[in-house]
Amino acid sequence: MTVDKTILLVVQQLTSPLADAFFILMSRLGEVVFYLPFIAIVYWCGSRRSGARLVLAIFFSGMVNTGLKLLFMRPRPIGVEGVRSLYTGSAGGTSFPSGHTQQSAAFWRTLVLLYPRRLWAWLGTLIVLLVGISRIYLGVHWPSDVLAGLVIGCLVASGVEYCEKKISLVWLNRIALLIAVLGSIGSLVAKSAIDILISGFYTGSLLGLLGESGEGQGRRPAPWQVAARLLVGFVGLWLVWACLPWGSSLTLSYFRALATSLWMTAGAPWLFRRLKLEE
User: Fold this and answer.
1) DSSP of the chain
2) What's this model's pTM, rounded to 2 decimal places?
């Protein structure tokens, strides 16, 4: 028996209905959709630069993860004798490295680099560890997948910070947008529903970043301005998503995701300025 399987089986000794529900919830904290509200809050009420860094870190982490999965093609523990697998709908593609853990590590590492406070460091460490353990407990990743995802996510976050200093966020965003457009074409051709939604989100977000300042909104907003931006921003986000036509078309799903994320990075800031909520 390998070390990977031994550790996985030890973790799965904790099995109980309560633990199942808890670790499924923790696993969801590693999904991109969980971080969208946080990115929006930073982008609208913190600074454009910080919000852009978070988007770029998650984007490049996702691209690196996809490339490594295709390179290593490691099978998941799903179906292996003695392994109990749950929440398998979150386990698309191959196993190495863990995408949930990597995305979580990339987000929280970037947040700590931008806002070096003990609270974010401890909270981020706790969430990343719980996401990683959840993937092992649920039997959808080997422990080494999780460890690799944690390390690579942190490296990607630091790499984006380094590239910002060397080539600027503007050029980094342009490179990312080109990759996102090519990825969108591939997703639409392959007709992968999840990949289409993710590609739409990235393309819309990165497209919106092109028209916004890298540094931010000027002086720090007053509390009432923060509250007003959040209200206007999230109501608008919901309206864009809810009011666009629904259907079974994957192309329609792609453009709904694109429009929603474009609102986040371009539409909402434009409306903030029109409403005098920012300078």
Assistant:
1) --HHHHHHHHHGGG--HHHHHHHHHHHHTTSHHHHHHHHHHIIIII-HHHHHHHHHHHHHHHHHHHHHHHHH-PPPSTT-TT-----GGG--S--SS-HHHHHHHHHHHHHHHHS--HHHHHHHHHHHHHHHHHHHHTTSS-HHHHHHHHHHHHHHHHHHHHHHHHHHHHHHHHHHHHHHHHHHHHHHHHT-HHHHHHHHHHHHHHHHHHTS-SS-SSSPPPHHHHHHHHHHHHHHHHHHHHHSPP-S-HHHHHHHHHHHHHIIIIIHHHHHHHTTS--
2) 0.91
